[in-house]
Amino acid sequence: MTVKLGIAPIAWSNDDMPELGGDTPLEQCLSEANEAGFIGIELGGKFPKYSKDLLPLLKKHNLNLCSGWYGANLRTNSVKEEIDLIQDQLTLFKDCNSPCMVFAEVSGSVQGDPNKRLSERPQMDLEESKSFYKKLSEIAKYLEDKGMPLAYHHHMGTVIETHEDTEKLLENTNDSVKLTLDTGHMLFAQGNSKKILEDFSNRIIHIHCKDIRKNVLENSLENDLSFRGAFLEGAFTVPGDGCIDYKPLFDILKTKDYSGWLVVEAEQDPAKANPFEYAKIGYKYLTETLKSSNIEIFKN
């Protein structure tokens, strides 16, 4: 088995807070991602929206498109409405040979609201959750048939946040619904990434390697900060700079023969955490830890 290492552009430019890295050129992000050792990058807001423009840019920096975020509103939209809305991104991802689409429900999310505490996140009752699971299964089957698997992202501040939320989602949707496991978000929600890997390895097709600064996490939980407040305080960092030990997780990936992407992702203020330096920290830690788990890394 081999895994591929990618990175998210959010460390260079934050789409939700343009003041964080807003003046950082896309070329700098791509060049530094490649120089740090990564062969893939997820889509960001500064990226061209058409493959005729994006593919040459990625090729120039020897990078592959290794997925990207899609924020859905299935709680309020019909499946048909959401399918219509997803078309441009679906076309771009297919043209760029992305392995999957990172998909999350953002209706009512408090993740971008600095005035909403994480405890105020939206939640669904039993009847709404049944409807949501059904619609999610339908759109996942549609995307699967189009050759673009849906990799659901549990996320702080949304309706699918916790370990229990994630388990229920996977247990109540069809097998077309795959998972993006995000180690940072799972720990923030006080869940167990190791158990998710053990119990649902057949559904996990994409992994975000996001680490946590334990002292900031504890303060964020104790004071019920907003999601934005938590990451501005420095809750997230790259693997090797936080409290998560990835060796047990990678040992499970080895036994489960995982061969997808591992994507370094950490929302940080680039003025405080130089993106290039932290990219190198993440890459070094992942390569050393993967080697200790006898997992090979795919090279372009």
Give your account of this protein's structure.
The radius of gyration is 18 Å and the shape is globular. The protein contains eleven helices and twelve strands. It has helices at residues 26-35, 51-60, 79-95, 126-145, 163-171, 183-188, 193-200, 214-222, 227-232, 247-256, 275-292, and strands spanning 2-7, 40-41, 64-65, 69-72, 101-105, 150-153, 177-182, 204-209, 211-212, 236-237, 261-264, 296-297. The mean pLDDT is 97. The chain has one domain (2-297): Divalent-metal-dependent TIM barrel enzymes (TIM Barrel), CATH 3.20.20. It has 300 residues and is α/β, with parallel strands linked by helices.
Tags for this entry?
300 residues, alpha/beta, TIM Barrel, ten-stranded parallel sheet, 41% helix
